[in-house]
Amino acid sequence: MDWSQSLRLIAPEETLSIASLILLLVAAWGGDKAAKLISVLAVAALVAAGVLVAPALCGGAMGTETFAFYGQFKADAFASYAKVLIYISAAVSLVVAPKFFDRFNAMRAEYPVLVLLAAIGMGMMVSATNLITLYIGLEMNSLAAYVLAAFLRTDGRSAEAGLKYFVLGALASGILLYGMSLTYGFAGTTSFDGISASMAHGLSNGALFGLVFVFAGLAFKISAVPFHMWTPDVYEGAPTPVTTLFATAPKVAAMALTMRVAIEAFGDQAHAWQQIIVFAALASIVVGALGAIRQSNIKRLMAYSSINNVGFMLVGLAVATPQGISAMLFYLAIYVAMSVGGFAMILMLTDEHGNQVEDLSKMAGLSRTRPGLALGLAMIMFSLAGIPPMFGFWGKFLVFKAAVDGGMIALAALGFAASVIGAFYYLKVVKVMYFDEPADVVKGESDIWHKLILIGSCVVISPLGFFLTKWLGHLADTAAAALFTAL
């Protein structure tokens, strides 16, 4: 093994690791007074890590030259694509945090450090080519996430969210570990390439059980039905900047990890897991849509929206083709833009005392009292619903097109029909803002960073976003090709 090459390939993780350790010392010496400075430095570290992964993505890195540490880590274009989205999402969760936590006098120096540590774990997840590396990255992310969910110690909802996330996360980790153990027992290796080779000629019953348990554990991480039960409570209870992180970066990491496991480890047995993915996709679309209809809390509504969008993305994975994976990656990028904009908008919904306004009824008539905010949220809702000419339409179109081209016409038809249900609750939010009598509750001043993030997100998801189609499509195709490269 060439140690210099391995260390070069993990440069983004090294950068974030060194930065997190240094910032942890700064936090210990400077205390909470240094929290904002640490946040700025943490964002700089994420930007530096993004710059380091960009060449691999733009250059289409793939093949044996992307392997590090005896093939346990892969810094290819696919991993780089996911890491760019992860770092952007993590940086946004840091930028939006100070204004929110200052209201509770709870902006602690540990927050940016925990986000960096979670980002390191997520980077390992998307680059993992071995079950051991997979689990280390996943747990590193999860341990930081459990603390972040319960970060607002003065809020009982935050403590409850952290506890629920920890208990259910531990259960999911146990399921995943059991599946990994069965897979190792019947494949004789923890390497994705080795697992693929050992199962190329068929699955034994034991190996099939291992596959099912592995996908069950991963389904929890992406909050796919029927392992979605934690999502609404955690999204509602966690501090909103933390919810912004949960809805984006870990979602990208878990989806990318699921794609890599499905294609690289079990690619020759796609017929065995396609049924699981098809069920999870359709169930997530339907349950996410139906669950959101009765929600009166905007954060819980966004949680069910997240479940719903995961279902649409899984349609691309069910096809098990480079076109399907490319469509998923394209959709992920649009989803991140919609989600960060949506939660930046939620952070801007405050009353005259600076308290968060989460109840939909208190947003009534927002178009007449705060027309700019209403327009931004309406654009995000239309895009999440996939209504033209918003850019969110293109993400759904690509995954449905991949399903049709892959011969899964029934799946595409059912997914398209179920998307109509989702449009109902998105349009309900628009109806409340534009047609109900003004509640005149949202009166708080918005932070400049929240405004900039919302404006940037709205520009991306607007019809102007279609100018990115060729460039983003090329990057998604390059990343997907790296995942399917024969070694």
UniProtKB/TrEMBL annotation:
<dbReference type="InterPro" id="IPR001750">
    <property type="entry name" value="ND/Mrp_TM"/>
</dbReference>
<feature type="transmembrane region" description="Helical">
    <location>
        <begin position="301"/>
        <end position="322"/>
    </location>
</feature>
<comment type="function">
    <text>NDH-1 shuttles electrons from NADH, via FMN and iron-sulfur (Fe-S) centers, to quinones in the respiratory chain. The immediate electron acceptor for the enzyme in this species is believed to be ubiquinone. Couples the redox reaction to proton translocation (for every two electrons transferred, four hydrogen ions are translocated across the cytoplasmic membrane), and thus conserves the redox energy in a proton gradient.</text>
</comment>
<feature type="transmembrane region" description="Helical">
    <location>
        <begin position="38"/>
        <end position="57"/>
    </location>
</feature>
<feature type="transmembrane region" description="Helical">
    <location>
        <begin position="15"/>
        <end position="31"/>
    </location>
</feature>
<feature type="transmembrane region" description="Helical">
    <location>
        <begin position="109"/>
        <end position="126"/>
    </location>
</feature>
<keyword id="KW-1278">Translocase</keyword>
<dbReference type="InterPro" id="IPR010096">
    <property type="entry name" value="NADH-Q_OxRdtase_suN/2"/>
</dbReference>
<feature type="transmembrane region" description="Helical">
    <location>
        <begin position="328"/>
        <end position="350"/>
    </location>
</feature>
<feature type="transmembrane region" description="Helical">
    <location>
        <begin position="77"/>
        <end position="97"/>
    </location>
</feature>
<protein>
    <recommendedName>
        <fullName>NADH-quinone oxidoreductase subunit N</fullName>
        <ecNumber>7.1.1.-</ecNumber>
    </recommendedName>
</protein>
<dbReference type="Pfam" id="PF00361">
    <property type="entry name" value="Proton_antipo_M"/>
</dbReference>
<keyword id="KW-0830">Ubiquinone</keyword>
<comment type="subunit">
    <text>NDH-1 is composed of 14 different subunits. Subunits NuoA, H, J, K, L, M, N constitute the membrane sector of the complex.</text>
</comment>
<feature type="transmembrane region" description="Helical">
    <location>
        <begin position="448"/>
        <end position="468"/>
    </location>
</feature>
<keyword id="KW-0812">Transmembrane</keyword>
<feature type="transmembrane region" description="Helical">
    <location>
        <begin position="371"/>
        <end position="394"/>
    </location>
</feature>
<feature type="domain" description="NADH:quinone oxidoreductase/Mrp antiporter transmembrane">
    <location>
        <begin position="128"/>
        <end position="422"/>
    </location>
</feature>
<keyword id="KW-0813">Transport</keyword>
<keyword id="KW-0472">Membrane</keyword>
<feature type="transmembrane region" description="Helical">
    <location>
        <begin position="207"/>
        <end position="230"/>
    </location>
</feature>
<keyword id="KW-1133">Transmembrane helix</keyword>
<keyword id="KW-0874">Quinone</keyword>
<feature type="transmembrane region" description="Helical">
    <location>
        <begin position="165"/>
        <end position="187"/>
    </location>
</feature>
<feature type="transmembrane region" description="Helical">
    <location>
        <begin position="275"/>
        <end position="294"/>
    </location>
</feature>
<comment type="similarity">
    <text>Belongs to the complex I subunit 2 family.</text>
</comment>
<feature type="transmembrane region" description="Helical">
    <location>
        <begin position="406"/>
        <end position="427"/>
    </location>
</feature>
<keyword id="KW-1003">Cell membrane</keyword>
<keyword id="KW-0520">NAD</keyword>
